Amino acid sequence: MRVDVRALGACNRLAEQGAKQAAGALSDLTGTDLAVEVTGASVASGEDLAESFAGRESIGVSVGLRGGLDGEAVLAFDAVNADALLSLLPGGQSMERSAVTEVGNIALGGFLDGWANYLGAAIDMSPPRYFEADGAAVLPDGALAGDGVFLFESRLDATTTDLDFSIYMLPDSGPFRDLIVGKTAPAAAAGDAPGAASNDGTASTAVPYDSLSTFSSLAKRGSANAADNIAMMTGLETSVDVSRLRFVPLADVPAEVGTEPHAGTVFELQGEPSGYLAILFEESSAAAVADAMLPMETDEPLGEMAENALCELGNVMTSGFIDGWANVLGTTITHSPPEFVHDIGASTISPLVAKLSERQDYGFVIDTAIRTEGIQARCDVYALPDERELARALDRLSES
Predict the structure, then answer these.
(1) What residues are paired with 133 via a beta bridge?
(2) How, if at all, do strands 261-271 and 339-344 pair?
(3) Where does the CheC-like protein domain lie (predicted)?
(4) What is the pLDDT of residue 142?
């Protein structure tokens, strides 16, 4: 099966529209303004999903889907926000289970309306099932058994209270398979016809699905290499919290990085695939990691010596991250000298997104969170490959 990138982008827009409908329905119910932060599709194995959800405690509801679209949809709140949620609902604490179930029923119904309208077929929801779950138990059992599934995730945030939640949809094959292979790309929702030209006038891109799963595994291996390089250069134990391949609107990426100050390095990749890679630490984490690398204390936490140390670290991490890609894809990938950045997170990545957006509207983003023990430092790696060059490389991988 080949995944049509334009069709997948159109499906992503359907999910975004659904999330906005869900936000509107919940705003009416709770009297609180809700905004959609981001919607994206992940290609993930059961192991990837288990790692992504590790450590989370959630409450929410799940429903089975039948008819126009088969699969399962889930509305999940972080358990720590349960009191904030219940304070907004009729009945409050005394009606916890029934109140949350009703919220889930309304939100998921709104989320699925756009899909049903496009497909021209009703999507039947099973009665909502309330759950309290740890980790990936929030997802249906079948999700963790697969070696590669599509997961649509929409994250919503309340603007006036400490409340955020996510909607997950895991579509089965069948009607969804027809959508993403481009036979019936959702032109009505996206404004694009199947196989239409992208914003640079080139034809739609199709990517072998099996190779996407392989590339996701490559990204995970590169993340582990990058973590090992941090450990080697700082002497601090590191671990990869999460690493996954997501398909997202490029315009949404800066908002995901956020408005907190970050410091790190950015690189331009040359070869196939080309693109960009950013290694970003929260400001305090950057200072702590640089301090661990320097032989003496400095008066400036992120002065010239720290900047040089982070550039050296970024160089080694980037090589470790992309070397595995080149070996398996059978290509040569090089990178530019490191460019040190120290700014609001969104501002550090916006220039990279702007350059890539000249060629494409959506992108396969590899995001990785690496945690350093002892000094509680966290590093986020964002890889933004050119989708057409990635598709060509994956084609060769599929043929071999």
Answers:
(1) 58
(2) antiparallel
(3) 95-129, 305-341
(4) 66
